[in-house]
Amino acid sequence: MAILMGLISALCWGSTDFLAGQVARKVGVAKSLFYSQLFGFFVLSLLLFFYFEMSFVNASFFQLTICIVASVCNLMAMVFLLKALSIGKASIVAPIVSLYGAVTTILSLINGKPMTALVLFSLFMCVVGACLTSIPKSKDGQRESSGSIFFALLSSLMFGLGFWLQGEFAVRDLGVINALWVYYLTAVVVLFLTLLKKGNLSLPPISIIALVFSISFFSLIGFASLAYGSATGHVAVVTVLSSLASGVTALLGFFIRGERLSQIQWIGIVIIIAGVILLKL
């Protein structure tokens, strides 16, 4: 069951990233993210109010502050991710963003976690892989946008910081569902104010709405699968398999959008994914 849940999580998150990039190209990053997060917020609110304890109500000021800071980091990471996907190749952006695992590991090491030779080797693989994917030209003769690589790296940094704060503080203090609900609430409020300031709160085209809801649905299923799989006691197995999401996104970019990469770029992608998996062993 743990293996199945991990694979479902990877499939859902990989599909989410790919679809989100498609929507961002058509309606913009802020609007696509706002409506997808809004749907997720409503669903989580129903689950929280009817099936789970609202532990955030009794949380201390420090606990809520850390949870909100983590949420802001993850929101910024999502914004950078969609920006990167909207201007670059999904098959390049996704593996670079998956470097958040290396960022989280480094923060854990700084916080006192023992460093092993495997960790050092894994971090080295991630760095080498990122360099290989970003430097060479693609087979179609076009060099990957430096902007997309820059935003992908920013996304990985913010995801790494956000997930580390969530894992070390928010989830431990509030629980998975409550911490996730705070994230969605933070995202909806910040994005609403952003769109309101721009006067751009109009609904996306009908043809896009179904796609936006699909993104949110896949994202929620991914989180649920990860949580359910972890509850079986095989946390390492589920986490490692879920990290294959970047590979799913890359394959979707290759088969659906026809993104053509050079051999050395494919090698870089494989090295990144392998490095991320080793970090989680």
From TrEMBL:
Residues 2-134, 149-279 form the EamA domain. It comes from the Bacteria. Keywords: Cell membrane, Membrane, Transmembrane, Transmembrane helix. Its main location: membrane. GO terms for cellular component: membrane. The keyword Hydrolase does not apply. InterPro entries: AA-Vitamin_Transporters, EamA_dom, EmrE-like. It is found in: Cell membrane. Gene3D superfamilies: 1.10.3730.20. Pfam families: EamA. Belongs to the EamA transporter family. This is Uncharacterized membrane protein. It comes from Photorhabdus luminescens (Xenorhabdus luminescens).
